[in-house]
Amino acid sequence: MPAIIPIDDPLDPRIAPYRDVRERDLVGREGLFIAEGAVVLRSLLTASRHEALSLLIAEKRVAALMPMLEALPEGVPVYTAGQAVLDAVAGFPLHRGILALGRRAAEPEPDALLSGLGRRAVVLALCGIGNHDNVGGIFRNAAAFGVDAVLLDSGCCDPLYRKAIRVSVGATLMVPFVRLAAGTDLVGLLERHGFATISLSPAGSVALAGLRRPERAALLLGSEGPGLPASVLARTRTVRIPMAGSFDSLNVATTSGIVLHHLSFVAPPESVSE
Amino acid sequence: MPAIIPIDDPLDPRIAPYRDVRERDLVGREGLFIAEGAVVLRSLLTASRHEALSLLIAEKRVAALMPMLEALPEGVPVYTAGQAVLDAVAGFPLHRGILALGRRAAEPEPDALLSGLGRRAVVLALCGIGNHDNVGGIFRNAAAFGVDAVLLDSGCCDPLYRKAIRVSVGATLMVPFVRLAAGTDLVGLLERHGFATISLSPAGSVALAGLRRPERAALLLGSEGPGLPASVLARTRTVRIPMAGSFDSLNVATTSGIVLHHLSFVAPPESVSE
């Protein structure tokens, strides 16, 4: 049985990490993160690379969550509170009534991450994607299509930001990722590990439908608007998704889904022995 | 030159339709809609099926928008105001500083809409999709891949809701759509006009990569969670997008993008003379 600990006082020090959720989102949590909602909690407890430290749950939700709570590792406290206390702790109406505090897994060195992947692998490399909805949506697609890892340059937002976790329906907790230091030579890093680099760009030289999948494929995505840096485009194979008429705009998360489906099912590589 | 009319009083009756934007979003606008932001304004003024009635623009934005404003039809007033007046009118901080009031085009009869399409056509049919982000995202993909029309059942939200327009980057203003009366036999309607009906479902009988495009294709999408009604699935061809491992969740807008790309470029029909 999990340790269920009722909380009556919003200022109780045991639930201090949950206080003023939105303000703390902005300043960061030094190795910790907050996850919210039942679907995300399930990912955190069953499929996450990261560790749950505690839970804070509305009293009215506890019964329904009990099967999940009973599987909690020893020593993870479940704090419960009435809705008014919860709202006072979080600093806004917490309709979902489910929060978890997690500790980030250590991020691997980029070289160690890439060299540890199979001979046949797909990674995503994100450049300058600062929108939490887009990063969350990209990770959701990465999990759905079995992407092996995600690299994020220093212009990307944090995949463990609360909203990014939520939009990804927990995928940012599951898919291995590494944040690259500013100035990292992304293309060089990928090439060093035998990844064929494929940059998505509206002006790409090859239409996606004609692309065959390399055994080790790295898919590079930039932000909507500026796109990938010219220095990256110049060193990689550029691929476009043709569009109708003058409407030249696909969401970057949707783009990732289209390309990953293509690489996974339309143009898979010859089968190889690993 | 457009008529530029400075507004100093948030209660000026000429800008009454812009008042309390969010509250009015909820109750609806009886044949009118509000569009916001520069990208959406461009769609409204250059590619929309609907009519602009007036604009309300922050003074500081007018100069940059002048090329667009100069192309306005005669008799469309451009109201301008300082930021404080704008915020007081809208009822929240209007950072974008650009609002437009539009009048909905009359919706065609569903039979008239479908019979007027070419021999080779793709339509989307949405069932129970009540989320504005998803409806907006689906329309964005519809515009990007040249979808001919969108049918929405009575459980869907309004594509001309402010947020849906914004998320679609104006595509809901461009792509023809019709909202079906409750109780409409959607599958019967589509079959009557020679559309092959393709339902997306995680349990679909055919994987998308094996699907050939019919000349007249109707793609049916349900909401995340409940999906399409069993009565619809039973009468249509069901198609699935295979996913990795246990992560069985694609966003419905992303799904629409993947399927539309497939139908447009991977499995196009034999070319036909129209």
TrEMBL record, chains A, B:
InterPro entries assigned to the protein according to its UniProt record, in alphabetical order: Alpha/beta_knot_MTases (IPR029028), Ribosomal_eL30-like_sf (IPR029064), rRNA_Methyltransferase (IPR051259), SpoU_MeTrfase (IPR001537), tRNA_m1G_MTases_N (IPR029026)
Pfam families associated with the record: SpoU_methylase
Signal peptide (residue range): none
Keyword list, A-Z: Methyltransferase, Transferase
Domain named tRNA/rRNA methyltransferase SpoU type: residues: 122-261
Keyword Methyltransferase: yes
PANTHER family: RRNA METHYLASE, RRNA METHYLTRANSFERASE 3
Record protein name field: tRNA G18 (Ribose-2'-O)-methylase SpoU
Native source species: Azospirillum rugosum
